[in-house]
Amino acid sequence: MYAIAAAQVAELSTAQRLLLVNVGLALLILGFTAVVIVALVRRNMRQRVEAERLAAMGVATARILHQIKNPLQTILLHAEMLEDSRMVEDPAARQEICQAIVTEATRMTELLSDLSAYASGGKRRLHPEPFSLNELVTGAVRNEVREAEVTGIEVVVGPMEPLVVNGDPYFLRQALENVLRNAREALMQQSDKPRRVEVALRRRGGEAVLEVRDNGPGIEPYRLKTIFEPFVTSKAKGMGLGLPICREIVESHGGRVEVRSRPGAGTTVSLVLPLDRGVREAQPA
Ligand SMILES: Nc1ncnc2c1ncn2[C@@H]1O[C@H](COP(=O)(O)OP(=O)(O)OP(=O)(O)O)[C@@H](O)[C@H]1O
Ligand SMILES: [Mg+2]
Fold first, then answer.
1. Mean pLDDT of the chain
2. Domain ranges of the chain
3. Cα dihedral angle (154, 159, 161, 162), rounded to 10 degrees?
4. Count of beta carbons in the 10 Å neighbourhood of residue 118
């Protein structure tokens, strides 16, 4: 084959040979240029990913520092007040100062446990067991009802179908509490109409749908796209981790989180979880 090709080249005129050499050279240059371009594009992409990573780290660090610095300053300020002998003598003032310290220290502890829950992320060890979602919901709602006196939020428990899922009740409760807390925090911004949150548990095919609906200010459509991103928050005292943690927990159970919201009308967050297989087979929908 090589001998045939060599013989064919020998038959070519000088001009044809020159053309062949030129074409060969052009192909070589083209190939080399392509390799250089691919290498440059790859380097550019790596640099962009690195820049994005650094920017995300910057946002996270700034938010964490801000959220830790504020309570620490309040604690320090109140601890210094306690050094004032007049304050220490007045029981009411002393109690108020101690209360402020406890509140801020509790907030810091909660922030840190949110951070560690987010950081442990995929490595979170679930201990799944079949359990009644109703009991979990009832327990979490009871806390909201208890706080209703202070918050002025009417808590309405809607249809509660008896549903069993196979999951880790500790983490699922944490996911639900994050959603309830968001509803409460959203409603606390509202003073022009009665505050209401509705919780319902329904079966949809082979899934359990746990719905938390509030009549709060809602979320603008442009913000809806980013609410699951870590460290994205509209709150002065928020870390922006509640929903990312919630989504990760629900997805690690094979479920998903759905959010519907209308500015001025309210927000509905649904935790959708696969029903326990045994229950699904015993009671087909
Ligand atoms: N029920 C709701 N009504 C209105 N806005 C909401 C609601 N739930 C979530 N959001 C919006 O989504 C953002 C992200 O929520 P997420 O729970 O992740 O963080 P956060 O509540 O701001 O802070 P954290 O939960 O860490 O204390 C909130 O800052 C808020 O703007
Ligand atoms: Mg939250």
1. 89
2. 1-123, 129-282
3. 30
4. 19
According to CATH, the topology of domain 1-123 is Helix Hairpins (1.10.287)
pLDDT score of 70 more than 70: yes
Q: CA angle, 247 as apex, 246 and 248 as ends, to 5°?
A: 95
Residues 6+ apart with CB under 8 A from 109: none
Q: What residues does ligand 1 touch, defined as CB less than 6 Å away?
A: 114, 178, 182-183, 186, 214, 216, 219, 227, 232-235, 238-244, 267
pLDDT digits (tens, 9 = 90+) for 226-272: 999 999 999 988 889 999 999 999 999 999 999 999 999 999 999 99
CB 246 within 8 A of CB 227: no
Distance, in Å, from the CA atom of 37 to the CA atom of 39, rounded to the nearest integer, reads: 5
The average pLDDT across 5-10 equals 66
Task: Enter the CATH code of domain 129-282.
Answer: 3.30.565.10
The residue whose C-alpha atom lies closest to atom 1 belonging to ligand 1 is: 183
Report the pLDDT value the prediction gives residue 187, as an integer from 0 to 100. 96
